[in-house]
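RECORD TYPE: inverse folding
INPUT: structure tokens
STRUCTURE:
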């Protein structure tokens, strides 16, 4: 009898252990199921985020363009100031980029319009204007690009179609062309291209049909005067006066008869 009782007790304990293990395994499966669900949800979210980011990156780069219009004027004088406009699609007032230390304007990629003037001047380290590539219009009096020692390209303005007032390109010694303005069709006021030592041609202005004010192209050391002729030939409106002097002696062959 002792052996039978002992055997019975042993069987009961063994059964308890088996049940416990079974319950533990079941809990582990539940946990595994929960982990699987969690992983699946997390992966789905991650995929969704990735898709969202990818779409944003494809359209505008890493900045989400969801802040609408920035109200007022803004002067950018340090690299950190550029971030102030990150995410804004327009600025109601004037934008001044006057930043000797700035090298990157990419956080301005959401901007499509500037309500006031756009000043880009005295930027000693800036080599391009790529962060401005979605701007289509400058509604104020002036687009002013001046005294940018390292600026080699204005291709960042390739979406710009109109300037309501004056277009002023001056004292940019490394700038070799103005191809970045190829979408520009009208200048409401004066067009001034002065003192650009490396500028060799005006091919980038081939879309302009109207200049509302004076046309001045002076003191561009390697720009032939006759480069202005094609620009004049394509205009259907304006300019009010023409000033062309102290550029390179004409090297066009043949020199157009009506070249200033």
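DESIGNED SEQUENCE:
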């Amino acid at each position: 009898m002792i052996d039978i009782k002992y055997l019975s007790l042993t069987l009961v304990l063994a059964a308890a252990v088996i049940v416990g293990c079974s319950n533990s395994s079941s809990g582990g499966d539940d946990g595994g199921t929960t982990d699987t669900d969690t992983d699946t949800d997390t992966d789905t979210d991650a995929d969704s985020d990735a898709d969202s980011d990818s779409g944003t990156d494809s359209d505008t780069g890493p900045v989400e363009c969801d802040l609408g219009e920035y109200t007022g004027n803004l002067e950018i004088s340090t690299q950190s100031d550029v971030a102030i406009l990150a995410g804004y699609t327009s600025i109601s007032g004037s934008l001044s980029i006057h930043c000797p230390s700035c090298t990157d304007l990419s956080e301005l990629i959401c901007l499509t319009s500037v309500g006031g003037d756009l000043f880009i001047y005295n930027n000693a380290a800036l080599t391009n204007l790529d962060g401005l590539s979605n701007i289509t219009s400058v509604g104020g009096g002036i687009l002013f690009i001046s005294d940018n020692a390292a600026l080699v390209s204005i291709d960042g303005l390739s979406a710009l179609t109109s300037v309501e007032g004056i277009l002023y390109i001056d004292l940019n010694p490394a700038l070799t062309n103005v191809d970045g303005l190829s979408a520009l069709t009208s200048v409401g006021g004066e067009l001034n291209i002065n003192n650009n030592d490396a500028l060799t041609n005006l091919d980038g202005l081939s879309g302009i049909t109207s200049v509302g004010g004076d046309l001045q192209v002076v003191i561009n050391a390697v720009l032939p005067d006759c480069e202005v002729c094609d620009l004049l030939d394509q205009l259907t409106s304006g300019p009010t006066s023409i000033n062309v002097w102290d550029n390179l002696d004409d090297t066009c062959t043949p020199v157009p008869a009506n070249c200033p």
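NOTES: The CA atoms of residues 71 and 132 lie 18 Å apart.
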